[in-house]
Amino acid sequence: MNPVEIIIKKRDGQILTAKEIQYFVSGFTNGDIPDYQVSAFAMAVYFKGFNDDELYQFTKEMIETGDIVTPSDNMKNYVDKHSTGGVGDKITLIVSPIVAACGLKIPKMSGKGLSFSGGTIDKLESIPGFNVNINRDDFQKQIKDIGIGIIGQSDNLAKADKQLYAIRDVTGTVESIPLIASSIVSKKIASGSKNIVFDVKVGVGAFMKDIKSGITLANTLVDLIKDFGGKSVAVVTNMNYPLGHYVGNSLEIIEVVECLKGNLPKDIEELVYELSGQLLIIGGKANNLPQAKLIVKEKIDNLEALNKFKKLIEYQGGDSNIINDYNLLPQSKYNIEIKSDTEGYISFINAEKIGMISLRIGAGRINKVDKIDYSAGIFIPKKIGDKVEKGELLGKIYYSSNDLILDSIIDKFNSAFEFSENPLNEPVMIFSVIR
Ligand code: URA
User: Fold this and answer.
1) How far is the CA of 184 from the centre of ligand 1 (A)?
2) 182 vs 35: CA distance, rounded Å
3) Which atom of ligand 1 is nearest to the CA of 174?
4) In this structure, are 300 and 341 located in the same domain?
């Protein structure tokens, strides 16, 4: 067996055997197969795909390149949620305390943000003192005690994925559905998750740009989890517009707390009720969605979910006083208000453009090693369908760097908006639910 034969076979659309897949994955993980051959292989998979057996084998091999947590029977009420990433996506931080308040256990390993897409870990790290690197024993004790914990992704899980992703990132092969699915599922199965709700985001602010590809990815994820003996639901959701009113780490923490106090913007409300509801069903706490949504409402109204979030902060060393005093969160040095020079109903707010502005002002990272400014961010008071008068506030940008070219940021911000003369319906947030 040699790597070139395997690359050619895949290039020509043939089916790889389990042995060939094992040879290739172990070869590139231990350094025997060089990056240029891995790149060619990734491109061949991008064009020719995998059938179900190949995808399962490839994912299994990826899992076996790192640590594996085996779930036990007493982990039946453990659930996990995974978002494919978006702009202003703070949903995990709202949903996790809600389901923990319902008696489910949700130990979460989350990633850092990259490019225009924000990361849950960065948002949490904006809370003074919050530690995302606690050791395994303390983490397990925390989950036993309060049902919720959120830490950074371990480098030891599915090690092959890290190497392969680094190559995909620079070879135009990130957007391959089998490679995305095996990347996500290998880390989920290796970390012991078996009951998972996926939020598959589609739109200009997501890496899946169209609904058809989003639905294909959702089906692939659900089927692959099934192959590993797990249960999952994938909700395909709208990521054309930024979620909520805030983008940027500490600003999004404020929005999370406001949501848990019952002040949910319409788009976030719809996603939170759907995703929490699906988690309650998959975790055995509700029989159907209407029942699940009533439970979610109760946990928000009686502040039990907010209290879980407070506990989460305290267990992980953070200052929970931020819940009542937002001034304790990192504050930007400057802010600038942008007023509308148009009158009309907002018909589009381009999530990708807003995400790119958040990158430029320091709220996100271009490379994995970049430092971020937790206080930087964007406030957008209006949503799709809202009426705006000339001169009314369209947005506020929070920043601390002196060397930003503000005019170009303001131009970019304005170019994210489109207006209509006529009133509009609220956008559809949930395109499909796949189980
Ligand atoms: N998220 C992942 O973990 N892997 C991918 O390939 C894409 C998104």
Assistant:
1) 5
2) 19
3) 6
4) no
